[in-house]
Amino acid sequence: MDSTSPDLLGEFAADRLLLGRSSTVQKVADVLRGRIAAGALRSGTRLSEEALGGALGVSRNTLREAFRVLAHERLVVHEMNRGVFVRSLGPADVADIYVTRRALETAGLRAATGSSRLAAVSEAVAAGESAARDGDWAAVADADLRFHRAIGGLTGSERIDAYLAGLLAELRLAFAVMADPRALHEPFLRRNREIAELLVDGRTGRAEAELIRYLDDAQALIVARMRQHQETE
């Protein structure tokens, strides 16, 4: 039976009018998400509709729809009578992010044996080490997040990759409390290298144990700094 009846085709024709706008909304959301993930838009930053709309050449309605997409992803928040702001995370948010990270990244390690995707893990480690030698700690942060996304990517699941990408962008918001990015990232460079080498050697069980300790330590470090920050406000 042909399901494309004239009535249904008429409905699709009406939907077509929405496609251009929908595509623009997603592109705007992608741009803003990328700026958040790169640390250019930090926690607490107010996102001005007028300024951003002018800079991106889009209408306020399109921008508002993009904000709704990012709010659903927990990257921005709308405050009544104040506007839209990049979210600020608290210790409970960080704890929840790390629970999810442990599940997704350990799944990647369990799928690592024989994976053709291991090269991406080693490449991210090398990029982080190179950036550290140059003293570029923002680039070290970028490489570190690529390392963890590459670990999740060992599953070969597009859904896990997309979810982890959003989760790591959200985690970037927590980095705002770290006055010294070097203090956050330098201790983990060696540990990234150790995990990558364990994976190359096929020692995935040991790599998983190391990764869990690693994530526990990273969570504790960020939460401790958050609490210190709250006490001094």
TrEMBL record:
Cross-referenced InterPro entries: GntR_C, TF_FadR/GntR_C, Tscrpt_reg_HTH_GntR, WH-like_DNA-bd_sf, WH_DNA-bd_sf
PROSITE patterns tied to this protein: HTH_GNTR (PS50949)
Keyword Transport: no
Pfam families associated with the record: FCD, GntR
Keyword field contains Coiled coil: no
Keyword annotations: DNA-binding, Transcription, Transcription regulation
Top-level lineage group: Bacteria
CDD domains in UniProt: WHTH_GntR (cd07377)
Domain HTH gntR-type: 22-89
SMART domains (alphabetical): FCD, HTH_GNTR
PANTHER family linked: GNTR FAMILY REGULATORY PROTEIN (PTHR43537:SF45), TRANSCRIPTIONAL REGULATOR, GNTR FAMILY (PTHR43537)
Protein's name according to its UniProt entry: GntR family transcriptional regulator
Species this chain originates from: Streptantibioticus ferralitis
